[in-house]
Structure formats: structure tokens, C-alpha cells
């Protein structure tokens, strides 16, 4: 749907610049957490963070390329949109599957108290990526209304018709996976509450440092899934999932203009320019969870030593992570902060009055 460029601009340029900068910064910050998930073979959070980093990369590029309302000055999108557009929907559904897998595996861990074996990693990979790669990726072309669409500030995106086939290939996954995520998150929260005494004993055991941090993360993840992810995604489902569906028409055959991109103005969907903030927040949240602890600091220090930055800037890298002085990065260790607060409260309540 082409529109004239006489409409008053509604694109928030400051928002676009901020998204570009913060997408790059948080993507870099998320590298260490991503490597951590790979090492411990956690397919759910690894997939979730990888997708978030990819979408942040898209946002950093697109917000600079399409940074105005003047369509006559726009880059046509050839090349970059042919790559991004077919990836967006499969990655979005893979993200939703990863959100289901995270509480599912945590519930399984709480129930069995055993580490998941390596052969189950492949099952998790198939669970997260099977439908996006083998169903949505190839069959989405049957229900796409055009090759791609462009909206300023956001960039390339796919559009789908409202046929029954779109319901099966695209739209049904969003509400179904959202409901499963909510149910599993609630079950996880209930199980953590029931095992609170066992968790408390682990927190009092000085030898179970890794266990206490794991349980603290369980509390935090449960709260995030229930309090943040569900209402946010529910709004997304309400906005974008059609309620009525018609007959299927093969757009590639019946529409000769299928290969022509559709250009929009910000006024057609003013909120979409702010969507990349969700992935910026995820990148930064994962950094607080896994990128500011002692192990991460050792990784940063090793990188600094290998690149020779210690010799070039000795004033900035005079302290190693294991030194007694507290590093600036340690203040960002969110899980460590919660753990210390919990321990102080336990110590104060255990002292005789």
C-alpha cells in the first residue's frame, strides 16, 4: 500500500539514534552470556539471546537506513530485505518456543534435581527450531502478501494474508505458545515456593555457591515470565493476530505485483518503531544475569591480556578480577546482589535476640 509523503512526520529520530547505539552496545555485552549458555548447553536461553542479538543487529542497521519519512530518498531494500524479511517470522516463533522451553526445563530440573544429559540437548534444539525451520520458513511464502514491506525506523518486515492457511502456518503459534509459557511459568513458581525450605538450606550452605545462584535465578526468571513477558506478548497477539479468516489464494500466482515492496509511513503503525527496545532490554538483562559475575570478569580480563590493552592502558587495567578491591563491573552483578541481600537477611534473622 503506497501512500503520499505529504503526511506529517511522526518518526522519532532521537529514538532511532538511541536504538542504533544501544542495540550495538547491548549486543556486544550479550556475547559473554551467550558463550556461557553454550558452555552449559542451555538451548532455551541460548536461542532466546541469539535471536535477540540478531533482531538488535537488524534494528541497528535499519534505524539508520530508513531514518526519515521521505520515501523518495529511501533505499529500495534490495538485498538486505530479501534476507531479513523471511527470517523475521521464523525467528519470532523460535523465540516463543525458547520461552516455553526455559520454564519447562527448569520445572524438570526442580522435579528430578538432575542435570540434563547431552543427548537431550538435540531434543531441545529440535523443539525450538523444528517448526520455524521446517514449517514456517518454507511455507510462509504461500501466505505472504508481497515480497516485503518497509516502515521507517523499523525497516523490513513480512506481511501475511488472513486466510485459513495463514492461521496454520503463522498466527496460531503466537497465542498457543504464549499460553504454554504462562502455564509452565506458574507451575515453576509453585514448585519453587514448595521447595523454599530446600532452597533456604542451599543458601545457608557455603559450599553450594553455584546452587544458590541457580535458585535465585529461578525466582527471578519466574517473576519475569509471569509479570513481564505474558502481558507484553498478549498485547502483541491482540494487535497482530486476526480474528477472522477467509479462503486461501496463492498470491505468487494471482498477484502480479507480489514482487513490488510495500512502503509505509510511521503513521500506519507508530508503535513499531519502539519494538527494538524489547531486545535491547533482553540483551542487557542477560548481561546483568551472566555478564557481570566473577567468571565473566575473568573472561574480560583474559581478553584484555591477550589483546595487549593492559600495557597500552595500565591505569584502567591495573586490577585483576580476583583482587580484594571491588571492581566497577561487580556492581552490575544483579544475581550476586540479590544473593548477598538474602544472606544478610538470613544472618540477621538467625542471630539470637
Automatic annotation (TrEMBL):
InterPro entries given in the database record: GPCR_STE3
Show the coiled coil region(s): none
Q: Which Pfam families match?
A: STE3 (PF02076)
Q: Which family does it belong to?
A: Belongs to the G-protein coupled receptor 4 family.
Keywords attached to this Swiss-Prot or TrEMBL record, sorted alphabetically, are: G-protein coupled receptor, Membrane, Pheromone response, Receptor, Transducer, Transmembrane, Transmembrane helix
Q: How does it sit in the membrane?
A: Multi-pass membrane protein
Taxonomy of origin reads: Eukaryota, Fungi, Dikarya, Ascomycota, Pezizomycotina
A Gene Ontology cellular component where this protein is annotated is: plasma membrane
From which source organism is this entry?
A: Blumeria graminis f. sp. tritici 96224
Q: May I ask which residue range the UniProt record assigns to the signal sequence?
A: none
Task: Report the record's Gene Ontology biological process terms.
Answer: pheromone-dependent signal transduction involved in conjugation with cellular fusion
- Transmembrane stretches in the record are 14-34, 46-67, 87-104, 125-144, 164-192, 218-241, 276-292
| Chief place where the protein resides | membrane
Places the protein is found: Membrane
Q: Name one GO molecular function term.
A: mating-type factor pheromone receptor activity
The identity of this protein, by name, is: BgtA-20534
PANTHER family assigned to the protein according to its UniProt record, in alphabetical order: PHEROMONE A FACTOR RECEPTOR
